[in-house]
């Protein structure tokens, strides 16, 4: 098992009622991490985090980035102690 940390911003923070949380996961993948988050925070978090058409991470209007600021995808492997940040994307420029 590994420990992975989550940083929640914007709507994710509202749904979780916290800006940070930590999870013990058995399978060190982003998809397993997302499942743990949905299990803990419920259907509203799942609706924000998971695309119902693909059952993959929702990439429309949301971003999930690692400590290096790079996007992560469901199949990516996580390291013990890693932090993933959950953001709502902003359009424009």
What structural category arises from helix and sheet content?
A: alpha+beta
Q: Tell me the CATH architecture.
A: Roll
- Weakly predicted, low-confidence segments: none
The helix/strand series, from N terminus to C terminus, equals EHEHHEE
Share of residues in helices: 25-40%
CATH level 1 class label: Alpha Beta
Mean of the pLDDT scores?
Answer: 91
What is the CA-CA span between the terminal residues? 41 Å
CATH topology label: Ubiquitin-like (UB roll)
Q: Please, how many helices?
A: 3
Number of domains: 1
Strand content: 15-25%
Walk me through what this model shows.
By secondary structure, the chain is of the alpha+beta class. The chain has a single domain (2-88), classed as Ubiquitin-like (UB roll), CATH 3.10.20. Helices cover 28% and strands 25% of the residues. The protein has three helices and four strands. The chain has helices at residues 10-16, 30-41, 43-49, and strands at residues 2-8, 20-25, 62-65, 83-88. Strands 2-1-4-3 form a four-stranded mixed sheet. The protein is globular. The model has no long low-confidence stretch (mean pLDDT 91).
